[in-house]
Design a protein that fits this description.
This protein is of the alpha/beta class. The protein has 13 helices and 15 strands. The chain is 39% helix and 17% strand. The radius of gyration is 21 Å and the shape is globular. It binds pyridoxal-5'-phosphate (PLP). Pyridoxal-5'-phosphate binds next to helix 5.
Length: 399
Amino acid sequence: MSTQETISKTKNYVMNTYGRYPIAMVKGKGSWVWDAEGKKYLDFVTGIAVNNLGHCHPNITKAIREQSKILVQPCNLFHIDQQGEFAKLLVENSFADKVFFCNSGTEANEGAIKLARAYGSKNGKYKIVHAKDSFHGRTMGSLSATSKNYQAGFKPLVPGFKPIAYGKMEALEKALQDEKVCAVILEPIQGENGVILPPDNYLKKARALCTKKKALLILDEVQVGMGRTGKLFAYEHYGIKPDIMTLSKALGGGIPCGAFLTTNKVAKYLSPGMHGTTLGGNPLAMSSGKAVLDTIMDEGLLDQTTSSGTYFLESLQRLKEKYKKEIKDVRAKGLILGMEFKNKETAKAVVEKCIQEGLLTILTIQKVMRILPPLNVKQKEIARALKIIDKALLEVTNA
Ligand SMILES: Cc1ncc(COP(=O)(O)O)c(C=O)c1O
């Protein structure tokens, strides 16, 4: 099917909820994708931090193929060996003792919110503090903890959510004076809000304050978990441990998969019947997820992410010097990188020019080019992307 046919079928039959670029990918391999006409793109969107091993990594393909021949979906009313296996691997590599599997990031956060409310319920604690520019998902609970930019048209939201400024300790201290707060939910690094890194010691102080106030600290690592920042989980950079962590995106290697992880101390607040899902934790997603985690470890991708991220960031800093008038800031942690433009017209034009030249990146909050290469990206692919970005900047600024 040609790209034009795909676009017209999508327009005619699929609900109009995405602002889509006029591209339809039909094939992917490693850092590359192809459209129906054979045009090839360097994919530094990676499904928005989903394809951390690139497209169609042989280990993931093998895991999916083999599992699909054996058993795809029994039922959570029975025991599932792949679920126990994958949970064990996640537990052994994190702060957590227990895992609940679901299907997406928003569901992982819904579950975390429910767990926090169950934890607080005996003491009348039910309020959830969240950052006002955050993104935690689109279902009603997660949406209530998300930036108001996504909430219009869906009110009333779930009561009991308190927005505060991200990175400001005074705001958190004030919010936690309320004894009814059962949890604080934060992204350790904000993705949708334009790759915002926490100020020094913010997460450490937030951790200490939550402990003091008997509020749970929920870290949403849906976008930055699974190696994206150069550590398996972003909290490891900050010398802290959350009470609950949520994951999805890269977790299942492209097969829908989400999870919330917690300690035994907190896990005990959910008992049989209080939370569940039909498809979550199915053997197909579990096998694919285990292949992702094993491969990240076996192929040394955490160190590679750190060194590739440093090279990429330093090169972007040089571009910032070259295009001082246009670029406001560049920032990164591992391979989540953001280039912030001074105005949104330039940002849009540069991202579009890059697409024309065969490089896919994401424009977020209108003025930040977010770059999410696979963790196993080759240095020459980063060099090629940098050349394209440089050329796009030159053409846009001279236009
Ligand atoms: C930090 C964060 N949390 C939650 C979500 C929601 O995940 P999903 O789209 O899988 O529901 C996203 C999606 O972008 C995210 O970036």
